[in-house]
Amino acid sequence: MRMFLMAGVACLATLVSNGACVAAERPSTKAPRAVMNVVNFVRALDPRQPRAWYAEALREEVALNRKYKLKNTILFQYDALIDPELRAEAAKSDPALTEFGLWFEMSRPLNEAAGLPWRPKHAPSWDWDWFINPGFLMAYTHAERKALIDAAFARFKADFGYYPKSVGSWLLDAWSMDYMVKTYGVDGFCICREQDNTDAYGLRGGYSNGAYYPSRRNMLSAAVDMSNAVQAPVFKMLTPDPIYNYANPKKRFPDYPFKSGCPTLEPVWAGGNVKSIVDWYFRVYTSAPGLLNLSYMQTGQENSFGWAKIKQGLPYQCERIAAARDAGTLAVETMGETARRFKADHPQNCPQTQVALEDWSGADRNSIWYNSCFYRANLFRDGNWLYFRDIHKMSDAFEEPFLDKVCTGWQANYFTPPVVDEFLFRTNGVSGVMSFDGDFKRLDPAVGAGDTLAVVATRADGSTAKVVFDERGIRVEGATLTADYAPAFRQTTNLHGDQLSFAFQGFRYEMGCRADVAPTPSGFTFRPRAGNIYFDLSLPDSHR
Q1: In whole angstroms, how far apart are CA 111 and each of 128, 133, 165, 224, 407?
Q2: Spatial contact of 39 and 65, defined as CB atoms under 8 Å apart
Q3: In the chain, at which end, N or C, are there fewer CB atoms within 10 A of the end residue's CB?
Q4: What's the pLDDT at 297?
Q5: How far is CA 536 from CA 4, 127, 478, 489, in A?
Q6: How far apart are CA 443 and CA 540, in angstroms?
Q7: CA 134, CA 112: separation in Å to the nearest integer?
Q8: How far apart are alpha carbons 138 and 466 in whole angstroms?
Q9: How much is the pLDDT for 161?
Q10: How far apart, in Å, are the Cα atoms of 163 and each of 44, 85, 90, 99, 350?
């Protein structure tokens, strides 16, 4: 849905025939829907791990799903699809509960089936390689991507009698997604949650979690105009931690307890295999106040990690999933079912939130994410300090790096246009954020009319500030804000009347700013005008 701002009050937008919106005053009636997808993805050729691990891990994952009667999705990498032992283990799944699909990373067998050379970077004998080139689609031309996709889909249909409806990969490109939807009718995709080069790829921006229709020019960015959208939703994988899945928590927070691993529900890492933290994830994603539309959870594991690691977390998670399902607090679906339900319920990108008002680490941090087709924002409280840790715009004009080009290097980094980003713009101490004045002790979020989220922030002295997120922007009452930027970003940021202009990677974009604004050497100070500050993130963007 789209919204117009009327007298500073967010209003519900109702679709009309020309794709524009009409303001209306009525509360949201849809209850937020908490959904879990169990997605196990299967490789046969990871040279880093013993071959004996592959079948055992899949066998145990299938057994867990049968034990708890969990709907689940198994995604085959091409080399696993043609592996008789792994196919036999997958065939033990309950056909009434299990969906099969494709995990799309390249390997020697797929390249050969597509008539393309295989050039591993780590060692000539490797039949699979985790570098972008040669392991991911953006390392190939459009014609080569088409050949690889066609070969994988043809083999899948030859084996199953139908084309897969669910496709996943740690990283996919918008061109390939669009081709798979238009040619083969794929219903939904899953990709890695936001990360900063934990592997050969970095993702910074876009929806922090949940589901969105991506722009055909940038798979990380939610489509602003649905005429520019890939017509299938993308899900972020493995349930990111709303507090700590941001940049590198080990470096940012000295008290962060884990030295390695991902801050997600992924079963092999601390967080996904600590029962008290797993319980915290379920509270955050199923019962936190302020959830909007879809609260999406995903778990599962690639078999190449081996059962010895996977069993530390996945069995308890499956037990917990089944209990939440039976209690009626969580729907358990195949990924394809969730994608089709999302398309039926939400013909356009819809706001979604993630709300963590308790900190599993005991460090007294709160994090509230609001995502819409125009922007995403993160309101963050760290002890007494309240600030916007992150604001990114969505843009149909901002291209992903290898939309048409070929990635010849080992890594690929994807972005959306940043307005505030503590990771990108942190140069010292508190740089890179937009801070509120005063010392704060609590946040109280509540869903309002038209998919708005209102957060009352209470200071230690009892005074309050209010932050209202609507689909197009952010209103702040009762506070002065101060933004600090990295020097290079500050030098290209300009104030023109009620508008701030930014530049990132040669791309210019704007944010409306109704406030009394004073430039500072490192950024800007924003004071309320007529009682509030309003940031309009829906302004059309400039082009390169």
Answers
A1: 10, 13, 22, 35, 17
A2: no
A3: C
A4: 98
A5: 10, 49, 18, 20
A6: 32
A7: 13
A8: 43
A9: 98
A10: 21, 22, 17, 12, 28
- CA 397 to each of CA 88, 172, 247: distance values in angstroms, whole numbers, following the listed order: 46, 18, 25
Q: E strand or H helix at 437, and its extent?
A: none
Place of tokens 């939440």: 324
Q: Which residues on neighbouring strands pair with residue 518, listed in sequence order?
A: 525
Three-point CA angle 43, 47, 49, nearest 5°: 80
Run of H or E including 500: strand 499-504
Q: Which one, of 98, 372, 338, lies nearest residue 234 by Cα?
A: 338
Closest listed residue to residue 518, CA positions, set 500, 535, 491, 492: 500
**Exposure class string for 446-467: b at 16+ Cβ within 10 A, else e:** ebbbbbbbbbbbbbeeeebbeb
Q: Give the C-alpha separation, 493 to 440, whole Å.
A: 29
d(CA 228, CA 178): 11
Determine the residue type at 306: G
0.70 surpassed by pTM: yes
> Distance between CA atoms of 333 and 187, rounded to whole angstroms?
14
> What gap in Å lies between CA 164 and CA 166, rounded to an integer?
6
Strands 434-436, 385-393: pairing is antiparallel
Q: CB of 38 within 8 A of CB of 70? A: yes
Furthest-apart CA pair in the chain: how many Å?
A: 69
Residues in the chain: 544
Sign of CA dihedral 436, 439, 442, 444: negative
Amino acid letter, 4 = F
Mean pLDDT for each consecutive 10-residue tract of the chain (544 residues)? 33 32 37 94 93 95 98 98 98 98 98 98 95 97 99 98 98 98 98 89 97 98 98 98 95 92 96 97 98 98 97 98 98 98 98 98 98 98 98 98 97 97 83 95 97 98 98 98 93 95 96 97 96 97 61
Residue 525, burial from CB neighbour count under 10 angstroms (0-12, 13-18, 19+):
middle
DSSP letter string over 94-114?
-TTTEEEEEE---BHHHHHHT
DSSP bridge partners of 151: none
Residue 504: its pLDDT value, please?
Answer: 96
SS3 for 74? Answer: strand
Determine the Cα–Cα distance for residues 365 and 423; give it in Å rounded to an integer: 17
Give the per-residue pLDDT at 429: 64
What's the rounded Cα separation, in Å, for the pair 474 and 377?
9
